[in-house]
Amino acid sequence: MGLFSFIKDAGAKIFGGKTSAEEAAEAAANKEAAIKAANAKAAAGLSETINDLDLKVENLNISITGDTATVTGRAYDQSTKEKVVLVVGNSAGIAVVDDQMEVENTEPEAQFHTVESGDSLSKIAKKFYGNAMKYPVIFEANKPMLTDPDKIYPGQVLRIPHIEG
């Protein structure tokens, strides 16, 4: 006779239960459901934060897939729209924001700046406006997400609004 080799986890189970393929499929479905639930919870948290910051967007909807957040709704103005994008984008786990919002009252779009190590609002103001003393413009443009002009961090994205002269 001799020994015969088999793959121990393959095939039908003789004592009931599911095959390894069925178990794997069930585990994958459970993982997918857990990811969807976590993404829905994160999206709800972002919506609540946007509401708490008093950023007015009609029919705000945020959906997350992987590291991409899609934002829809109608913002009161361009500033509000950009702040919503920043709230969502400056959140852990989000690498891309697909901005599909509409704007009720149009105005010039701001530029965006990703904070680097060693940056300060005055250094950023000098770069964009040619005057370091214009840092309060950047600070005000990023309220209420910023609460202190000295509390910015590398990787954070800031709004740099257009100003005249």
Q: What secondary-structure arrangement, pairings included, does this model have?
A:
Blueprint: H1 20-52, E1 57-65, E2 68-77, H2 78-89, E3 96-99, E4 102-105, E5 111-114, H3 121-129, H4 135-141, E6 157-160
Parallel strand pairs: 2-3, 2-4
Antiparallel strand pairs: 1-2, 5-6
Helix pairs in contact: 3-4
Domain LysM: 111-160
Protein name: Peptidoglycan-binding protein LysM
Pfam families: LysM (PF01476)
Determine the structural class based on helices, strands and strand pairing: alpha/beta
Taken together, the total number of domains comes to: 2
Q: Give helix % range.
A: 25-40%
Strand fraction equals 15-25%
CATH topology of the largest domain: Helix Hairpins
* Architecture (CATH level 2) name of the largest domain: Orthogonal Bundle
The major pleated sheet works out as: 4 strands, mixed
